[in-house]
Amino acid sequence: MQGILDRRLLVVTGKGGVGKTTVAAALGLVAAERGRRVLVVEFGGHDRLCGVFGTPPGEPGEQRRLVPGLSSLSLDPDRALMEWLQALGGRVSGRVLGSSGTFQYFAAAAPGARELVSMVKVWKLTGGSSARARRGAPDLVILDAPATGHALGLLRSPETFGRIARVGPIVRDTGHVRALLADPERSAYLAVAQGTDMAVTETIELQAGLREAIGRDLSGVVVNGLLPRRFSAPEMERIAALAQPGRRGDSGLAGAAARAAREVHSRSSFQHGQVTRLRRRGFEVLALPFLWQPELDAESLHALAGRLDQGLRREDARAG
Q: Would the pLDDT of 223 be above 70?
C-alpha cells in the first residue's frame, strides 16, 4: 500500500455493505492530517458524510468542507450526464432536458454514457490536463465507488463508450480518463472487505476483474469490522468445561456465558482465517476493528483513521 495517499486518485470499492464510505472517509482524514487537501467523492448521489460530521448538506455536486483539509462531494451519474448534454445543447434547461424523451433514449442507448461522464467529472476534479486547474484542485480525490460489479463497469466505461463514439469532445476526455486510470503514479485501487467468505471471494474476483478491465492490481485490502481474538487455546478449554450441561453448581448463567464466549471466539477465528486467506493470495491487508455502537460518528471515524494511519506507516516502513 506504499504511497496510496500520494496519488491524485484513490478508488475505493468492494462488496456492498462492507463499509466502503467509512474507509474512504477515514483515509481522507489520514491524508488531511498529513497535510494534503482531500476530496471524498460519494458516487450515486449519496451524501452520508455531511451527516457524520454535522455539516449541512449542500446542493448536488457542491463541495462541502467537513474538517480542515477534507471536503466531500456527492456525484449523481444522471445529473452528470444531464449537465454534459446541456453543455452541448447550449440554452436548453436541465429541467426540460431531463424530462425529454431524447435524453432518456440517449441515456439508455449509449452503453456506459453515465459512467463515462461521471469518470470525466472525477478526472476534472483531480485537475484534468490544465496546469492552472491542477493548482486549484485537491491533492487527492478519493472515489467512494459503487460495489464491485458496478465499479468495474465504471472503470471499463472509457473502453465501453469508446466503441460507439469516434469523434467529438467526449472522445478526447475518454483518452484522459483512460490514461489516469492506467497510470500507477497518479491512481491507486483499494478494496474494502469484511471477514466473510463471500466478501473475500468478491475481493479476489475484483482483482481479476481489475486486471482484465484496465491492467491494474489492487494496492491493498482493508478488512473492516474485525473482531478481536480474546482467548488463548488454554482459556478456551476452561471455557468449554464451563459450558458442559449438568455441571455441579452451575446456575445456568455460567454455561450461557461460556457458550456465548465460544460463539464469539469461533466467529473471530473465522474472520482472522479469511484475513490469512487474503494474505496467502499476496494481498497487503490492513484490519479495522468492529465498532460496538449503532451508528458511525465523527469521533469513531477519527479513531479508525488513527488505526489506518498506524497500519499505513508500518507498511511504508516495511516496504522502505
A: yes
Show the cell assigned to 249. 453448581
- Separation between Cα atoms, residue 195 and residue 221, nearest integer Å: 11
CA distances from 153 to 214, 260, 295 (A): 11, 43, 30
d(CA 42, CA 45): 7
Q: What distance in Å separates the CA atoms of residue 49 and residue 174, rounded to the nearest whole number?
A: 29
Tell me the CATH number of domain 4-230+284-319, given options 3.40.50.300, 3.55.10.10, 3.40.50.720, 3.40.350.10: 3.40.50.300
Q: Could you report the per-residue pLDDT of 30-53, keeping only the tens digit for each?
A: 999 999 999 999 998 778 999 999
- Three-class SS state of 56: coil
Rg for the chain, CA atoms, rounded: 23
148-171 tens-digit pLDDT: 999 999 999 888 776 665 556 667
- Residue that has been written with the C-alpha cell 496519488 in this structure: 7
Q: How far apart are CA 233 and CA 295, in angstroms?
A: 33
Residue 114 parent element (H or E): helix 113-125
pTM for the model stands at: 0.88
Going from the C-alpha of 121 to that of each of 23, 29, 76, 169, 190, the distances in angstroms are 22, 23, 11, 13, 20
Could you give the 3-state DSSP secondary structure of residue 171?
helix
